[in-house]
Amino acid sequence: MLHDHYGWNCVGGAALVLALMPAHAELLELPMSGDSVVGASYSITTRYGETVPDLADAHQVGFHEMLWANPNIHPWMPGESVQVRIPRQYILPGTRRQGIVLNLAELRLYYYEAGEDGATRVRTYPVSAGRIDWVTPLGATEVIDRLEHPNWYPPESVRVEHRAMGEELPRVVPPGPDNPLGRYALMLGMEGYFIHGTNRNEGIGMRVTHGCIRLRPADIAELIYRVPLGTPVQIVSMPIKVGLLGGIVYMEAHARPLEEFPMAEKNPEFEGFELMAPVAALEAQLQPGDYVIFWDQVMEVARWQAGVPTAVGWREDFAPPPGHRPELRWRLRKPGGSG
To answer: Which residue from 36, 46, 69, 316 could staple onto 290, CB 3.0 to 4.6 Å apart?
Structure first.
């Protein structure tokens, strides 16, 4: 396999850091070359008593991101002196690099902003989104208002749900510790939907909301006044992302959300791997050209669904490692062209 032979694996050549790094939102430079792999993953050694939510919060990743990237650790308490990968390298979603892009499949928000020097950068945050019975809608919308200390007006369906659990929700929940919107909220053009903070930090990176997009309090506080009104918002579900970094082809795969499976499928977890899905992702997200693709590696990434960019090949004009025989040469033709 490619990462066994050449050590490219999931960090694109970045050094692994074995010390606890301070939490901060990621402000990443977009590659001048048009490449789409940004950031760098690293590793840490756990300390006594640290939980997975502790680590996720400290390193600005979501709960499920931590588990996807570390399938062999205990899902709550990894233990002392355990090596844990912090997945902070990303393939930018294959959409317009403008405004806010939310990829539900990876539970991550990307915000593209222009700096004073005119260069576009991207900020990225882990989020929570709608659970299977309260699905966050896909589509294009925009930011239409920003709210500080918002009231929450729970819809009747939510009040009925709470009533069934023996809790009577008021028609209006005022600002404060019991308000699930937190301190700040961005109102979207989709009626009833917000990007907002939370009063329950531990749910970030999970599908636990009633459809809204939830960020950690510090993240929404950073974002709220950076996002102009009218900013476009794209909500997509892209389980497989493909991108280039310096001539190397990377693929990143996430589990397909359960609600996207046809109802006829009785066991979506078993049927979830689709053989042609990674092929379609390569064709849709790579620029036309000649590539050397390692098919076994592509299939492994698609099955593993660890949510971390992994090298699966290279552009043919990129100098390959010496002495290696490619498994597959793949030409992605230009539309209407001969080559």
So the answer is: 316
* Catalytic residue selected from 10, 59, 212, 254: 212
Can 196 be counted among the known catalytic residues? yes
**CA distances in angstroms from 137 to 111, 204, 220, listed in the order given:** 19, 18, 20
Active-site residue identified among 10, 59, 64, 196? 196
| Tokens, residue 243 | 């991108």
Residues 159-170: tens digit of each pLDDT? 787 788 888 888
Is 74 catalytic? The answer is: no
Convert the pLDDT of each residue in 186-226 to its tens digit.
Answer: 999 998 899 999 988 778 988 888 788 999 999 999 999 99
